[in-house]
UniProtKB/TrEMBL annotation:
Organism of this sequence: Candidatus Kryptonium thompsonii
PANTHER family documented for this protein: PEPTIDYL-PROLYL CIS-TRANS ISOMERASE D, PERIPLASMIC CHAPERONE PPID
Subcellular location: Cell inner membrane
Main subcellular localisation: membrane
Keyword field contains Chaperone: yes
Annotated keywords: Cell inner membrane, Cell membrane, Chaperone, Isomerase, Membrane, Rotamase, Transmembrane, Transmembrane helix
GO cellular component term of the entry, any: plasma membrane
Family note: Belongs to the PpiD chaperone family.
Protein name, per record: Periplasmic chaperone PpiD
Signal peptide per UniProt: none
Keyword Isomerase (UniProt): yes
């Protein structure tokens, strides 16, 4: 949403393009592969205030977004992303329909004369999809080409200008609507100056911060009457929207053991072909999902799963199949050479340095002696090392070159010989016992057939079928019982509102709409989410309203106690403020209370926050109007209580203000208009009667 709010003109233009798309195109193809041919095709996919959104226009817009996705990522959208794109297109079409309706209500029109004037007299301001037809090699309007196109009488030219006219009228209508909506958006000189000062004026201050917890033993615990009074006076804090809580089971669409075995068999087949004389590089070029790379690799440049297996192999050997984080690999060593860089493979045992440094050193030396006497280094690492990442691997750090480790550790490793155990070596992390396993300066050229492991269509359909069977047979009352009997992991969402993301799942309007339109205990159809196929049951419904006192009693107790502490701290600091020596300034407070510390902060702007304090608006708001050497009143901050003395601030820079004036004005204007526009759209949606029939067209 934040990104959208920064791009209002682009959003309006995209809605115009979407409008043109549904007018010009007449494809009618089903690009999703999931259209239900069940007799509902004549039903509109949606209705907005009585006006239909047809399946055809939805499908056209969806294909447009899918093509954009392919161009951005180079991949087809998976089921999860396809659902996200459907939701995105749905929101776009609903918004477009609402905007069209508002244009009609406001009687906004665009005449042929306006379009003609635009094309003839201001062609350089035409939208890019139109303008690009009439530019020369420098990107400027070619008037000869434009006039020739305008005079052309061919059927193609006439049709082109008919569609361009529709497009430009749609653009003009949105511009007029935008102008009407945003006519009230004004930016005052005071707002511009305030923004400038927040971003440019730099401050130097002295301050005292007092932690209210200092008085924790001096206040009484909140009484029942105080808790009730807080509850009465702050009911808006406890107002909640309608929420749902769901339980669900997930039938994973991850690759099965058979899917993995299938890839392993395929790679074993390639291995046999290579051993019988097939050109391995050609196999890579023809079958690998990663291109052949005709380069030499150094230690540390390959995946760890591959690194650990290839360096002890000879040229010509075939290694694998090897399972790795990105798939399964079959590798042939093509060549090796001596490189200019030396690499070390080492293991270590890390001993922390506690308060008693001597004791830590003694422990490290004992471990060193055990290792040198032949004790299994890997077992010693598993027992004594506090490096949890490597301890489970026997302390193995893998291969590394110079510049990868801290200086002391690196020097010890490169100085020692392979097989040597050295230490204790002290670094910022603690004491290290190091075993140098090997040193090497070789580089290898490899050919790598990499295949990803993906769920087969059989696996996916099997899991979908399991989910559908479960959804059809289970009841809400026995959801947990029957899921447990099948060995399924039952997940529970925290409460969520209709327009919020579903915790653990994300934004999913289809699931949210189902949850808020069904009864407690209802069991859902199958929904595709990231990771597989999910079946939900509604486990809790909470209506909108004020949370009961007993539900929030403990939270109120904490808040009341915090306010008491703040009041106590405020009164104490205020009493000290009145006794300050004005000639000595804030520094004199330490004579009144030696436990308080006067700190300084300098070089900051209000937009960036105060070092040591942060962006506490209670404090920032006081600084704006303070004068040099002035000491503030006592300030209740978000967490602490403060006294501030302004030491200095940079003077107002008239020249910089003049140069930034228009930029700041436009910045504030854009923020205001975006807020207004999206608030207007949200309000239209809340008050619209919207019928969503997507479930008639798409499997859930």
């Amino acid at each position: 949403m934040a990104k959208m709010r920064d791009n209002l003109p682009a959003i309006l233009l995209s809605l115009v393009i979407l409008f043109l798309l549904t007018i010009v195109l007449d494809w009618g193809m089903d690009i999703t592969g999931r259209h239900r041919s069940n007799g509902f095709a004549r039903e509109p996919i949606g209705i907005v205030n009585g006006e239909e959104i047809t399946y055809q226009e939805f499908n056209q817009a969806l294909e447009f977004e899918i093509e954009n996705f392919k161009q951005r990522t180079g991949n087809d959208p998976d089921d999860f992303m396809l659902e996200q794109l459907r939701n995105q297109v749905w929101e776009q079409l609903v918004t477009r329909k609402l905007i069209e309706q508002e244009i009609k209500k406001l009687n906004l029109t665009v005449t042929d004369e306006e379009i003609t004037d635009w094309v003839l007299n201001s062609p350089e301001t035409l939208p890019e999809p139109v303008k690009r037809n009439f530019v020369d090699s420098t990107g400027k309007i070619d008037r000869v080409l434009l006039e020739r196109a305008l005079k052309s009488t061919t059927p193609q030219a006439r049709q082109f200008w008919i569609e361009v006219e529709k497009f430009l009228k749609a653009q003009k209508l949105t511009e007029k609507l935008q102008s009407r909506l945003l006519a009230s958006v004004l930016v005052s000189e005071g707002e511009i100056r305030e923004r400038f000062e927040k971003q440019n004026t730099r401050y130097e201050i002295k301050y005292v911060s007092l932690d209210p917890n200092r008085f924790s033993k001096e206040i009484s615990e909140p009484t029942d009457d105080e808790i009730k009074e807080y509850y009465r006076n702050h009911q808006d804090e406890f107002r909640i929207q309608e929420t749902r809580r769901l339980k669900y089971v997930l039938f994973s669409d991850m690759p099965s053991a058979e899917d993995t075995a299938s890839v392993l068999r395929e790679l074993e087949n390639f291995k046999q072909q290579a051993m019988q004389g097939a050109d391995f590089v050609e196999l890579v070029k023809n079958y690998s999902e990663a291109p052949f790379s005709d380069v030499f690799f150094k230690h540390g440049e390959l995946l760890p799963e591959i690194e650990n297996e290839i360096w002890d192999k000879k040229v010509g050997e075939i290694v694998g199949p090897l399972k790795a984080s990105d798939g399964i690999h079959l590798i042939k060593i093509l060549d090796e050479r001596k490189g200019s860089d030396t690499f070390v493979r080492a293991s270590h045992i890390l001993v922390p340095i506690g308060r008693d440094t001597a004791e830590s050193y003694n422990l490290a030396k004992d471990i060193l002696n055990l290792a040198k006497k032949g004790e299994d280094f890997a077992k010693l690492a598993a027992t004594f090392s506090v490096d949890q990442v490597t301890a489970s691997k026997g302390g193995d750090l893998g291969w590394f070159g110079k510049g990868r480790m801290v200086k002391e550790f690196e020097e010890a490793c490169f100085k020692a010989k392979p097989g040597e155990i050295v230490g204790p070596v002290r670094t910022q992390y603690g004491l290290h016992i190091i075993k140098v396993i090997a040193k090497d300066n070789r580089e290898l050229k490899i050919a790598d057939i990499k295949l990803g492991v993906r769920a087969s269509s059989e696996t996916i359909e099997s899991q979908r079928k399991r989910a559908e069977d479960f959804s059809h047979t289970v009841s809400g009352k026995k959801f947990v019982q029957e899921a447990s009997a099948l060995g399924l992991d039952i997940k529970t969402t925290p409460p969520f509102t209709k327009d919020s993301p579903i915790p653990g799942i994300g934004f999913n309007k289809t699931i949210s709409d189902w949850a808020f339109s069904n009864k407690l205990g209802s069991v859902s159809p199958v929904f595709k989410i990231r990771g597989g196929f999910a079946v939900f049951t509604i486990s809790e419904i909470k209506e909108a309203g004020i949370r009961p006192l007993e539900e929030v009693r403990e939270a109120i107790k904490v808040r009341v106690r915090r306010e008491k502490l703040k009041d106590k701290a405020y009164n104490y600091l205020e009493s000290l403020r009145t006794k300050l020596n004005k000639n000595e300034g804030l520094e004199s407070i330490t004579k009144l209370d030696s436990t308080l510390e006067v700190k300084t902060a300098s070089g900051f702007t209000l937009s960036g926050g105060i070092p040591g304090i942060g962006t506490d608006e209670n404090v920032l708001g006081k600084l704006i109007d303070m004068k040099p050497n002035e000491i503030s009143q006592t300030i209740k901050g978000n967490s602490f209580v403060y006294l501030i003395q302004l030491v200095n601030k940079t003077p107002f820079d008239s020249s910089a203000y003049k140069s930034q004036h228009e930029t700041l004005k436009q910045q504030i204007y854009n923020e205001k208009k975006n807020t207004l526009f999206f608030s207007w759209i949200d309000n239209l949606k809340k008050n619209a009667k919207i019928v969503d029939n997507r479930s008639l067209y798409f499997e859930q």
